[in-house]
Amino acid sequence: MATRTMAVRPDGRAKHLFWLALAAAALGAAATAANFAWPRGTEFVPITYEVRAADIPAPGDPPKLIESGRFYLVHLTREDAEREIAVANAILPRADPAYAPDLSELAGISPRIGLLAIPVDCYHDGSQLVWRPEVDQSPQSTSLGAFECHDRAAYFTMTGIRFRGPWGPRLALSTLPVTPSFNGSIIVTTNRPREGSLYNVTRARRLP
User: Fold this and answer.
1) 76 DSSP β-pair partners
2) Which residues of 37-68 are buried (b: 16+ CB within 10 A; e: fewer)?
3) How far is 146 from 87, CA to CA, in rounded Å?
4) Range of lowest pLDDT (103-112, 127-136, 159-168, 172-181)
5) Cα 101 from Cα 198, distance rounded (Å)
6) Environment class of 91 (CB within 10 Å of its CB; exposed 0-12, middle 13-18, buried 19+)
C-alpha cells in the first residue's frame, strides 16, 4: 500500500518570523557597510613631539630647528615681542580682510614672552624654511634675522610675519600648539597647525 506524503505549509506566524529575521540580517549588513564608508564618532588623534628641557632654546636665542619634529622653536623675550607687534601694526593696513586677524586677537594686545612652534614647511608649496640670521628686516624693523622661503623669495620674522617677497592674502606662517610639561619639557602637537596671524606673538606659551 502506497504511503501518501502531505506537505505541511508554514502557518502565518512562522512566515512572519522568517521575513523579520531576513530583514534584520539585511539591515545589519547595510549598517556594517555604512560604518566602513562613513565612520562615526571619529575623534582627533594628536601626533605629539616632546622637546626636552635641554633642547629648548634660551629666551632671545635664534629660532632652533627641531629637525626630527619638523618645526622651529622660537623663545621670545619682551623686546622680541614688542618688535613683532610693531611690525604687525605696520603691515595690518595692507591685510586682506579675509586674512585679517580676529578682533579677539587685537583686544588688549600686549607683548607676550614665551615659546612658539612654527612648522618647517612654508605654506606656499611645502618648501623648507631656513633661518637666515644675517637678513636685514628694514624698513619694517631694525632687527636682523628672518625665515627664508627660497622658492618664493619670501621672508618672515621670527613669529612668522611676512615682511618681504611676493604679496598675497596670507600674511604669516602657521603655528603649532605648545604645551609645557611638568618636567621642564614641552609637548608640540605637530598635526594641528593653526592658521598664521600677524599677531602670532599672542600665541606664545610661557614656561612655568
Assistant:
1) 114
2) eeeeeeeeeeeebebeeeebbeeeeebbbbee
3) 13
4) 103-112
5) 7
6) middle
Q: Which pairs from 7-11 meet CB under 8 Å and 24+ separation? A: none
Query: In this structure, what C-alpha cell is assigned to residue 120?
Result: 618647517
**Position of cell 500500500?**
1
3-state DSSP assignment of residue 30? helix
| Close Cβ partners of 184 (under 8 Å, ≥ 6 residues apart) | 52, 53, 207
Tens of pLDDT, residue by residue over 31-87, are 444 444 444 455 668 899 999 999 999 999 999 999 999 999 999 999 999 889 888
Q: What is the CA radius of gyration of the chain?
A: 29
β-sheet bridge partners, residue 49:
188
- The more confidently predicted of residues 33 and 136 is 136
In whole angstroms, what is the distance from residue 182 CA to residue 195 CA?
28
DSSP for 65-129, written as a single string:
EETTTTEEEEEE-HHHHHHHHHHHHHHGGG--GGGSPPHHHHTT-----EEEEEESB-TTTSPBP
